[in-house]
Amino acid sequence: MAPKTIIAVVGPDTQDQKLQDLAYDVGKAIAEAGYVLLTGGRSLGIMDYASKGAQSAGGLTVGALPGQDESEMSTAIDIPILTGMGSARNNVIALSGRVVVACGIGPGTAAELSLALKAGKHVVLLHCGGDAETFFRSLTPAQVHVASTAAEMLVLIRSVLSTK
Amino acid sequence: MAPKTIIAVVGPDTQDQKLQDLAYDVGKAIAEAGYVLLTGGRSLGIMDYASKGAQSAGGLTVGALPGQDESEMSTAIDIPILTGMGSARNNVIALSGRVVVACGIGPGTAAELSLALKAGKHVVLLHCGGDAETFFRSLTPAQVHVASTAAEMLVLIRSVLSTK
Amino acid sequence: MAPKTIIAVVGPDTQDQKLQDLAYDVGKAIAEAGYVLLTGGRSLGIMDYASKGAQSAGGLTVGALPGQDESEMSTAIDIPILTGMGSARNNVIALSGRVVVACGIGPGTAAELSLALKAGKHVVLLHCGGDAETFFRSLTPAQVHVASTAAEMLVLIRSVLSTK
Amino acid sequence: MAPKTIIAVVGPDTQDQKLQDLAYDVGKAIAEAGYVLLTGGRSLGIMDYASKGAQSAGGLTVGALPGQDESEMSTAIDIPILTGMGSARNNVIALSGRVVVACGIGPGTAAELSLALKAGKHVVLLHCGGDAETFFRSLTPAQVHVASTAAEMLVLIRSVLSTK
Question: Short name of one Pfam family for this protein (chains A, B, C, D) (predicted)?
Fold first, then answer.
């Protein structure tokens, strides 16, 4: 039996309502398409809302947590992977996602995107801003895609997965 | 929604038929009890057979692989977590399993058991031999349990989980 | 006795002669100032030349290597730390350097800089290009500094260390 | 220039005076022999005393710390490597030591010894007790050595290094 296809969603610990709504839609779209959602697993910002969106559509959610226990975990994680390795767990997320999707930007998100690009992965940027788009495209242009909505993201993910 | 309960199964890359059969039964029993199985994910020995046993009962299998890709992965892994961190992934397995079960012993298995004990986890030893039983009991006696069969293991897991 | 002050130097596996010369000067300046140099330890590009520069001035060089052995190690590493954790070792470099200096840019370097900023560290960018400067400044402006030469870098490092 | 030879010393967070004295002698003997000492770097038990012993003989001490800062660090560490990866840093210690020496035993020490054996390293056990000696010898007999004193340990280290 082939393994499930995992899509990673990363993003900052933001309280911006628009970004949280976007993350919810992104998680929902990933679950509806039949993919497993992987996030950093915490009860904050993008990780939390993407997981809630995926669960709302009956999807499976995996959280690769930085800590050694479930104390900071989102309530919407089905499978907690307790890495105990802090920000080094960003590399686990970058490697385990077939595609890495960012909703918004911050230092941790930038690390995850950079590690994904280094591992040869495709990334999709949603609302990361022009500076981030310009920078990541300057590193590895063929691996960097930009979307404005969850629907556009899904088209890009399917396109990337079909050509692998 | 509460996260699923993850049970980790560890053991050597053995070709011993009896240990492989035991691992298959162990994986099957874990899945039948409704737990998610977590292993090191490779297509070798205990990891492989436990995952096959779990899938035979319709269970969900997670593999925390040492490498950066799926090249060494068991065919019975549903959710590949690519850690890219070699044997340091042993700590991810030790932390993420609510209980850690060993089928047989070897240096890697000994590391996983030791890290589990250090993290305060309960471990169940199946066919690890008297030297291992004596040693691990000398470290943290209250956390070390011994079983001979998958059925005995399940009784111990349920007992441990009910008292947490 | 107080621990030695460690300065991390990161950068791509470049064959660009100008960047290699810059890395050599950067390593030399760090050693002459009495700091320990930390790099990714491989025999490639910036890591290699910075280590050679530091050794030329009698400095101590530490390499946090991605692999499990010394097979890819620069000949100019005094203390090999074999992490065996691939690109996740980028976080070890980001955490262990009191300041993180980048000579040129690439996906791995971008990950190290991002992880350093996330950990609250100051970074110095040399010849990373305007896109990188604009992007990293957009993340955490107070932690990002730009220099053109090893001498300018040293002034920035001393300034940063004196205000901590 | 060849890299320095690193010897790792591991052991529990013990307050046993005899074990602490032994660790001090072990660290001192390693430094006097010209090796670099690597420990887990914390200000507790064996790590702390071995580092103090090494510094007393003018040796260089490296600490691979579990945390992200120097808050728990032994005062006798020259080069702090901040791994931020908790107990997974045990694998960094196991890989980076040319030989791994244990003074006393506990779950964390057992993990480090097991990971060292898995990586093909030789280990020297001092005052680990008969249960540990029997168990580790049952795993990989040719890699496990037992000593009673720092002087005996040094003979074993030299013998192991000369045959590599």
Answer: LDcluster4
H or E element that contains D62: strand D61-65
CATH assignment of the domain containing C31: 3.40.50.450
Enumerate the H helices of D33-147 as residue ranges: 45-56, 89-96, 107-118, 130-139
Q: Is residue B78 part of a domain?
A: yes
Domain that holds residue A112: 6-162
- HSE (side-chain half, CA atoms, 13 Å) at D85: 32
Model ipTM value? 0.97
Which tens digit of pLDDT belongs to each residue from C150-160?
999 999 999 99
Closest CA to B136 of B159, B161, B109, B98: B109
CB A118 within 8 A of CB A141: no
Interface test with C, best of A13, A117, A135, A138 (most C CBs within 10 A): A135
**Is A1 among the domain residues?**
no
Q: Is the pLDDT of residue A1 over 80?
A: no
**D132 and B135: CB-CB below 8 Å?**
yes
pLDDT score for B123 = 98
Number of domains in chain D: 1
In chain D, which residues have pLDDT < 70? 164
Query: For residue D1, is it within any domain?
Result: no
| Closest approach of C45 to chain D, Cα-based (Å) | 18
CB contact under 8 A, B86 and C85: yes
